[in-house]
Amino acid sequence: MPLVPAGHRSWGFWLVTLAATANYAVLAATAPLLNRAIPEHLGYDTAAAGAFVAIAGFTGMAAMPLLGYLAGRFGPRRITITAAIIATIGIAVATVAFTAPGLITSRIAYGIGNAGITVATTAWVSASSPPESRGRALGYYGMSVWLGLALGPMLSENAYATVGNHDTWAALLAAQTLTLVIAVAVRSGLTESVPPKSAPSPRKTSVRRAVAVPAAIAIAAWGAQGVLTAFLISHLEDRGISPTGFQGGATVLLVFAGSVLIARVTLATATDRLGPTRAARIALGLVALGLGGLAGAPTFVTACLAAVILGFGYAPLYPSLTILATQPLSGPDRATAIGWFSAATSAGMAAGALVGGWLIVSVGSAATIGLCAVAQLAVLPLLKRQGPRGASLATHR
Fold it and tell me: Who contacts 362 (Cβ-Cβ below 8 Å, separation ≥6)?
């Protein structure tokens, strides 16, 4: 069978998803790894560690709109391969030069590469999936984020404790190389610039207008994820939960990611049935509830229960917001919109790591995660501003 993406039933689709999973695993691994290794090896504090984590996020955020444009004009496969090369170089630099200048260089290169892979693989999946199953395909593709979130911290935490900093970076380098190998192996097979004749023509809408509300919500939601990725393990450690082992903080992240995967499979058509606007509202409420639970979790079990609620909140959020950002657009503009929307998620992750580090130093980790919960409720009214557009999207989907 040709390795060409053609919807979620094709081998090519799942290979692109696997490439994205390897990339996200490295992304998720670097945040807690830097949070531990920078204070221990370079002598900087937690806030400085968060700043180093944020470099890649802010670099990616700046590059994503252009990368989305390039993916729409030159094809997502070419951008994926090029970006994978740059990301691999970035991880290699950190492996051989774990110094402040080396890490700055590494995080800039990795930020650009990771951003390109994120935008291009999302555009690749969106463009190669049939319109009638695009929401489900995006949901399945989005599992790569949560698989990466589950695998990355466990890999970095346990490898760091076992083999040390240098060899852990070497393992991440091997994982990042996998993305490049897969991208080269998969063929494009896209006709994304020519919409299906049977599909209704979307009303002419600017990219900026289409992306504005989904991007604002994404900053709040992925900001919370940035805080959790970088600081949840240390937060739970402060509350008496070991960072490693079966009942460790890394396992809580695994439970979180696993619940997202389960929800993605069991509720695969939820966004299509409820409509993206209504699904996003419900999702934000569950995210807020889960964050509140993690902020005050006194035991490993209660932390896991909160992580399950959080996972069921995040599961429909990505496909719902992606549909809201791209549905009014057509042709290459969809890839451009994906670039802007991805920039918003990257901005949220970076802001979460950066501001989260400062807040933790100032008010503590429990209050910081609690503020993340409040932020989810604060952006809920933004969805009401879509009015008829949100309703028409729900009907169409």
Answer: none
